[in-house]
Specification:
alpha/beta; Rossmann fold; 12 strands; 434 Repressor (Amino-terminal Domain); six-stranded parallel sheet; four-stranded parallel sheet; 14 helices; single chain
Length: 349
């Protein structure tokens, strides 16, 4: 195992300096450049500064009185606050951790992605486990897993070798398309967003894959003009739907499958402002069943995703991993169901 002496020799400083930096000792000042070099050496040499983390790696039980009982949460703070989908997941995580006397600590993506200071962040905050919603590079996750357990939420982590709590996005959208087909629709469009950093890569996103597959299995062709990549922005959904309608009003899809309720609600507004009747002229179906979907005009048909339960199961999973009740990267796939409301209720002949 790497020792403080190894780090001191690697950086060219004294062992006491290394110890002060790693222990966050404020009694004597160490300049920032030296601190960064020490934490970079910690990363490169594989030193684990967190006593609890060392016990995890060595597969030893940690005494209760040395536990921090802190779990980190990495998510876009603005997204978590304003997006009802993420807000309910967060509430499920927080409520469950609180019930078992854990504390939820917010960690920014920038703090995690600064590799030289990554272990310092974990050490200083006393984090015993990490729940990820914001997208983090997989190589970085593998590095973090050497120190503390990690649980991923949402589609970024579905196919990665980490513990995951999610639902089957592809199957959910397939079911929506099949619902429309059984109700007489053949000209079906799609509204969603991509998965890379700029959200442009729509074809790799699971909900779009579900739409593609369901259309292919039904022998229906996809009109590229009816596929809208909003990059997950409501204003884009509204504007793009406006443009679609104005571009060729005589040839419009009779149904739109939307990858989220927020995208659907924005697109419905554009349809109504262009004097289209919903669902008679164009039917809509969303995903998430956020609270406002019941109060849109007309009320939005949607896929009920167990958001609070996803948060609850993520919290239970990370606690079990921290307490070494689970050692394998479990994959928990929660169920979903269609909620039928007025936006899709007309059966076409």
């Amino acid at each position: 195992m790497v020792r403080l002496k190894d780090i001191a020799e690697y950086v060219g400083v004294s062992i006491s300096t290394v110890s002060r930096v790693i222990q966050n000792d404020q009694t004597r000042n160490v300049n920032q450049e030296t601190k960064n070099k020490i934490w970079q050496a910690v990363k490169e040499l594989g030193y684990i500064p967190n006593q609890h983390a060392r016990n995890l790696v060595n597969n030893r039980q940690t005494k209760t009185n040395t536990r921090s009982m802190k779990i980190g949460w990495v998510a876009n703070p603005i997204q978590a606050e304003i997006n009802p989908y993420f807000a309910q997941i967060y509430t499920g995580i927080r409520d469950t951790l609180t019930k078992y006397d854990y504390t939820l600590i917010s960690v920014t993506k920038d703090e995690i992605e600064n590799e030289a200071l990554l272990l310092k962040t974990i050490h200083d905050l006393g984090i015993e486990g990490l729940i990820l919603i914001d997208r983090i590079d997989i190589s970085l996750i593998e590095y973090i897993q050497q120190t503390i357990p990690v649980v991923g939420l949402d589609f970024y982590y579905t196919d990665k070798n980490i513990a995951v709590v999610d639902y089957n996005r592809e199957a959910a959208i397939k079911m929506v398309v099949q619902y429309f087909i059984t109700h007489g629709h053949r000209e079906i469009g799609f509204i969603g967003g991509g998965i890379n950093k700029t959200f442009e890569d729509l074809h790799a996103e699971f909900r779009f894959k579900g739409y593609q597959l369901a259309m292919e299995e039904a022998g229906l062709s996809m009109n590229p003009d009816w596929v809208i990549n909003t990059m997950w922005k409501m204003e884009n959904s509204y504007e793009e739907m406006n443009q679609l309608i104005k571009r060729d009003r005589e040839h419009l899809p009779t149904a739109m499958v939307c990858a989220s309720d927020m995208m659907a609600i924005a697109a419905m507004r554009a349809a109504i402002e262009n004097n289209l009747r919903i669902p008679e002229d164009m039917a809509f179906f969303g995903v998430d069943n956020i609270e406002m979907s019941k109060y849109s005009s007309p009320p939005l048909s949607t896929v009920e995703i167990p958001k609070y339960e996803m948060g609850k199961m993520a919290a239970k999973t990370i606690m079990d991993m921290v307490e070494e009740k689970i050692t394998l990267p479990v994959k928990l796939v929660l169920p979903f169901e269609l909620i039928i409301r007025e936006s899709s209720s007309i059966k076409r002949t």
